[in-house]
Amino acid sequence: MDKDMTEVLKKAEVLIEALPYIQRFNRKVIVVKYGGSAMSNEELQRNVIKDVALLKLVGFKPIIVHGGGKEISRWVGKVGKEAEFVNGLRVTDEETMEIAEMVLSKVNKSLVTMVQELGVKAVGISGKDGCLLKVDRKYSDGKDIGFVGDVKEVNPDLLYDLLEKDFLPIVAPIGLDDNFQTYNINADDAACAIAKAVHAEKLAFLTDIEGIYKDINDKDSFLSRMKASEADKLIEEGFIGGGMLPKLANCTSAIRNGVNRVHILDGRIPHCLLLEIFTYHGVGTAILHDDDQLNDVPVSES
Ligand SMILES: Nc1ncnc2c1ncn2[C@@H]1O[C@H](COP(=O)(O)OP(=O)(O)O)[C@@H](O)[C@H]1O
Ligand SMILES: CC(=O)N[C@@H](CCC(=O)OP(=O)(O)O)C(=O)O
């Protein structure tokens, strides 16, 4: 067989290997939280968007929930303010709220454009639309941090309508309280709340590290999978810090409230989503139910 033909056959094998995963996740909802450093350059963004578009085109039902924290901080700086965070949450006064809503709306529409350039229909909304995200004011250790929302209710009707009509929903993390006041929501919290409400098959957090380490300074302590109770223990014992702390807490909350699998993936790796979904071993850290039998065997082989 000549070299060209061998190459072509290899490609065919890769496609065939994906078949059981395509069968398994057909028509299933996958929520992708996209933000943080994984959003930092346009090439990375285009790779992530290509992956999500591919998932859509092969019959999955992805929903993107995006952040844009770094871009918000840049614009907050431009008006002469210092970005301030308490336990990973942005202290959000009236002016910051206005900036956050403008920036997130711009990020939202640029993601919509990128998806549509790939031939997939997308609709960008925020948690305000269709009262998707209803919030209460969130306090951090009892401290008032301004217009920061704690999601208390998700109304997924609009999402279901969009999915039904074959649109890819792209959601900005902004919500309304009972008085229709606008609130800024941490994008991890928004993604988790949405994934729970729609009983997503998967929730994937794209972040700026390979996944969870037991000891962040020891590269050999990488954890490729863990059960929710093991994650609780790592948190309790102080192994998890920084922005990973609320992220992992969101993971365990999602797993315990109707989401089948949660993954923390390195958004800096090109096509990390495809690698996680279409390969047996996956990449990143998977957080599982305590009674999970690790039954990852694709349907056609089981
Ligand atoms: N045990 C741990 N394993 C992995 N990451 C950790 C751990 N403890 C702290 N972290 C930190 O959490 C960061 C990810 O959180 P964050 O920066 O908030 O992500 P994002 O901006 O993508 O939402 C990592 O870059 C890492 O520095
Ligand atoms: C309350 C709060 O902190 N909201 C976040 C919303 C954006 C976000 O979470 O963006 P990343 O996922 O890119 O960090 C913020 O203002 O930065």
Automatic annotation (TrEMBL):
<comment type="similarity">
    <text>Belongs to the acetylglutamate kinase family. ArgB subfamily.</text>
</comment>
<dbReference type="InterPro" id="IPR001048">
    <property type="entry name" value="Asp/Glu/Uridylate_kinase"/>
</dbReference>
<feature type="domain" description="Aspartate/glutamate/uridylate kinase">
    <location>
        <begin position="28"/>
        <end position="266"/>
    </location>
</feature>
<dbReference type="GO" id="GO:0042450">
    <property type="term" value="P:L-arginine biosynthetic process via ornithine"/>
</dbReference>
<feature type="site" description="Transition state stabilizer">
    <location>
        <position position="247"/>
    </location>
</feature>
<dbReference type="InterPro" id="IPR004662">
    <property type="entry name" value="AcgluKinase_fam"/>
</dbReference>
<keyword id="KW-0055">Arginine biosynthesis</keyword>
<feature type="binding site">
    <location>
        <position position="184"/>
    </location>
    <ligand>
        <name>substrate</name>
    </ligand>
</feature>
<feature type="binding site">
    <location>
        <position position="90"/>
    </location>
    <ligand>
        <name>substrate</name>
    </ligand>
</feature>
<keyword id="KW-0808">Transferase</keyword>
<keyword id="KW-0028">Amino-acid biosynthesis</keyword>
<dbReference type="GO" id="GO:0003991">
    <property type="term" value="F:acetylglutamate kinase activity"/>
</dbReference>
<keyword id="KW-0963">Cytoplasm</keyword>
<dbReference type="Pfam" id="PF00696">
    <property type="entry name" value="AA_kinase"/>
</dbReference>
<dbReference type="InterPro" id="IPR037528">
    <property type="entry name" value="ArgB"/>
</dbReference>
<keyword id="KW-0547">Nucleotide-binding</keyword>
<dbReference type="InterPro" id="IPR001057">
    <property type="entry name" value="Glu/AcGlu_kinase"/>
</dbReference>
<dbReference type="InterPro" id="IPR041727">
    <property type="entry name" value="NAGK-C"/>
</dbReference>
<dbReference type="GO" id="GO:0005524">
    <property type="term" value="F:ATP binding"/>
</dbReference>
<feature type="binding site">
    <location>
        <begin position="68"/>
        <end position="69"/>
    </location>
    <ligand>
        <name>substrate</name>
    </ligand>
</feature>
<dbReference type="GO" id="GO:0005737">
    <property type="term" value="C:cytoplasm"/>
</dbReference>
<dbReference type="InterPro" id="IPR036393">
    <property type="entry name" value="AceGlu_kinase-like_sf"/>
</dbReference>
<comment type="function">
    <text>Catalyzes the ATP-dependent phosphorylation of N-acetyl-L-glutamate.</text>
</comment>
<keyword id="KW-0418">Kinase</keyword>
<feature type="site" description="Transition state stabilizer">
    <location>
        <position position="33"/>
    </location>
</feature>
<comment type="pathway">
    <text>Amino-acid biosynthesis; L-arginine biosynthesis; N(2)-acetyl-L-ornithine from L-glutamate: step 2/4.</text>
</comment>
<keyword id="KW-0067">ATP-binding</keyword>
<protein>
    <recommendedName>
        <fullName>Acetylglutamate kinase</fullName>
        <ecNumber>2.7.2.8</ecNumber>
    </recommendedName>
</protein>
